[in-house]
Specification:
Blueprint lengths: L6 H7 L1 H7 L1 H4 L36 H5 L3 H8 L6 H8 L12 H14 L3 H9 L4 H7 L9 H17 L1 H12 L17 E11 L28 E5 L6 H5 L4 H8 L5 E15 L4 E11 L8 H11 L5 E6 L6 H9 L3 E4 L10 H7 L16 E6 L4 E5 L3 H4 L19 E4 L19 H7 L7 H8 L10 H30 L2
Parallel strand pairs: 1-5, 5-6
Antiparallel strand pairs: 1-3, 2-3, 3-4, 7-8, 8-9
Helix pairs in contact: 2-20, 5-20, 7-20, 8-10, 10-20
């Protein structure tokens, strides 16, 4: 299929798209429900000031009505959130609480999503819900006119909800897709075996802290808490991101304020005081789409590879036993321990190469037996040819194919591999290259057409950054890491809802 086609055009051309997401096909499975945590007791509250009820999906059957709905309005007609009520109430409300009867926690939770979608301040959100423009949202969320939450009540709900619940929303959503048959629990890349696990792509984004960087002198070494940080954003850190692979060491090594400000003057890129979010997204190559399984927020200078192992375990847990077959990420994860963890699990290491000093030196390449892209070299320095991948033994095979006989302009001494066999010298690359280098070892030859085709699918995930920007989250609207985690987790869940609503709208137009 032509690479110039948009994602929507690719979906429209796929025969399974309309059969999967069109409303007339999906209606029999509605409403969808997010999985809940087992063992949650019933809510201790006997009544609420609002009453969320699943609004039904009849409007989606009318093309004219459906065309006027936003992606979120479609999504809330596809999913029944009622089963989250007891779990939300157990986190927020207690039988001994005094004061007014609270609002239905599901109603309040949906308000948080609306706030992000509309990019509203708390006071403006409360005003919109209470006013004439909020009539439809009141109906969908279960509020009555004159009985809507205040700005302080909405803010308190979000603070009390906490990041622990929000962090698991992506995992619930993806498991819901698996259960409904809207996503496959194995690779969807053309030509892959159904036995290969799902493809995961990691995306990242820098976020400026709400507080500005203070003007003060910076010491040679940063203490445990950066003196540049304000008291309400004391976890924020400064980093200079060059955006170039050859600067990967510097960009991801957690260098402090002094080095970052010096680099700004001599390299392109951006300097950010704040945080960095990462999102692990499930790729569906059939429909050129990605779903966020989990996301995380760190101080901007956190070394991504140092926290990768517990993140990988969390990701496997979030997928609920669905195996991972491929992991795609940039050079920030291009370190030995992270690459080794993927190899041990039989996961294709589609990680961009992290450059290091001396990689481009031809003499050093010849001495160690491989070049700067991890391609093995023969005894005389000729690049060897890839000769397939043994999935059972988890190793890539390279052969010299007697290249020296064809390149007569560079004669070589007698080689013991000229007559040894038809392939010549053979090198196997598994966990590492000859000599033990893991940093440059890959399961698919780096830079090859196969590599570029698989790695290029990262483009399907990078739309997340533009959507975060549209929600006003390139600069966090809150102080501190805990509040930031709540905002980023809700935003990634909202992106999943938007994607679901958009796919159903597109597929329904194809199969009215």
């Amino acid at each position: 299929m032509s690479a110039s086609k948009t994602a929507s055009q690719k979906r429209a051309a796929h025969p399974e798209f309309a059969r999967t997401f069109a409303y007339r096909v999906l209606a029999a499975k509605l409403p969808l429900q997010l999985p809940t945590t087992p063992g949650i007791p019933p809510s201790r509250k006997s009544s609420y000031r609002s009453a969320y009820r699943y609004p039904g999906h009849a409007n989606l059957a009318k093309p004219a009505t459906c065309a006027g709905l936003s992606d979120l309005e479609i999504a809330v007609r596809l999913i029944d959130f009622s089963n989250l009520r007891d779990e939300l109430a157990s986190r927020l409300y207690h039988a001994t609480d005094r004061g007014q009867t609270p609002f239905d926690p599901v109603s309040m939770f949906l308000c948080l999503l609306l706030r992000l979608e509309q990019h509203l301040a708390w006071a403006k959100l409360a005003e919109e819900l209470a006013g004439r423009r909020g009539r439809e949202w009141r109906r969908l969320f279960g509020f009555r006119k004159g009985h809507t939450p205040s700005a302080s009540g909405l803010r308190y709900f979000a603070q009390t909800l906490g990041p622990e619940f929000v962090d698991g929303l992506g995992a619930r959503f993806v498991r819901m897709l698996f259960e409904a048959g809207l996503a496959r629990p194995h690779s969807t890349y053309p030509g892959d075996s159904p036995q290969r696990g799902v493809s995961i792509c990691r995306d990242g984004q820098l976020h400026r802290a709400r507080d500005r960087l203070q003007e003060c002198s910076c010491p040679t070494k940063c203490p445990s808490v950066c003196p540049q940080a304000n008291t309400r954003d004391h976890e924020a850190r400064l980093i200079h991101y060059s955006g170039r692979n050859k600067d990967a060491d510097r960009a991801n090594s957690g260098q402090r304020h002094r080095q970052a400000t010096e680099d700004t003057a001599r390299t392109k890129g951006k300097t950010v005081f704040g945080f960095r979010s990462t999102a692990d997204r499930l790729l569906d190559d059939r429909f050129a789409v990605a779903w966020t399984v989990r996301s995380e927020l760190y101080p901007a200078n956190t070394d991504e590879h140092t926290v990768f192992e517990p993140e990988l375990i969390d990701l496997e847990t979030a997928l609920g036993g669905v195996p991972i077959g491929e992991f795609i990420a940039d050079a920030g994860l291009g370190y030995g321990p992270a690459l080794a963890r993927l190899y041990e699990r039989g996961i294709l290491r589609m990680i961009d190469i992290r450059a290091a000093d001396g990689d481009g030196d031809p003499e050093r390449q010849r001495q160690r037996g491989y070049d700067h892209q991890g391609r093995p070299l023969c005894l005389h320095g000729f690049a060897m040819s890839a000769n397939g991948y043994d999935a059972g033994r988890r190793r890539a095979k390279y052969i010299c194919a007697k290249a020296c006989l064809r390149q007569t302009e560079r004669p070589v001494p007698d080689c013991p591999f000229r007559t040894a066999n038809t392939c010549g010298q053979v090198v196997n690359v598994g966990l590492s290259l000859p000599g033990g280098c893991i940093r440059l070892a890959r399961d698919i030859p780096y830079g090859s057409p196969r590599w570029k085709a698989r790695y290029g699918r990262r483009n399907n995930t990078e739309c997340r950054n533009s959507r975060l920007e549209a929600m006003g989250l390139l600069r966090l609207p809150c102080h501190g890491l805990r509040w930031g985690r709540i905002h980023i987790g809700l935003a990634d869940f909202l992106i999943n809802l938007h994607t679901l609503g958009r796919l159903v709208a597109e597929a329904s137009r194809l199969a009215p």
